[in-house]
Predict the 3D structure of the following.
Amino acid sequence: MPHLSVVVPAYNEEKRLPRTLARLFQYYEAQAYSYEVIVVSDGSQDGTAKLVADFAESHPTFRLIDYSPNHGKGYAVRTGILAANGEQILFCDADMATPQEETEKLIPHMEAGADVAIGSRPLKESNLEKHQPFLREMFGRTANKAIQLLAVPGIKDTQCGFKMFTNKAAHDIFSRCKLDEFGFDFECLMVARDLGYRIDEVPIRWLDQEGSKVVLMRDGPRALRDLLKIRLAGRRGRLKKRAES
């Protein structure tokens, strides 16, 4: 069993992945702990799956999960996490907006007893080196206020794609998660809180990257719809395990 599993959801990331895979290998090979990297190609229509498969042939700590058609980021993260074997499980974005060395900031929280440690951009100690475009950032702040009010009061940033879980917490939480799209971020934290897991927010370094898969006018209303749906389902509904598990 590796100490750390790193799950990377990827949809049509052929252009970004060579740099990302090289950096993941460089960083984790330099650490004292064992690791695995799982890249989940979420119905990619470009060369994503082949690129990862080729890389994994010469890098045995890397593996590919590939399926079709595209289901959404939440589905991809859930698939990767439920296949992960690490004592701790981190999921991070293929664009590396949060640099991989920020892993070092989450691990001490896990060692101190956290079940979940999440990167959080609004914390005053965080370093946002490159902001999102103004409209996207304002939309994100507004959406986060709604999420705090309706989903996870007290958590300042649910949507940052840099979250670490103990193996037990990860499998316990994601076996219950049902959202396949971008709302999975707040859903997994709602379920974690329902189950009584300790969640630590951690200040991080973050740099906006071009090429986001989030489309504001499409994904914003979907996220609000999903938030209301899981809110109305109540604690009992959220804690019901998925039928296929």
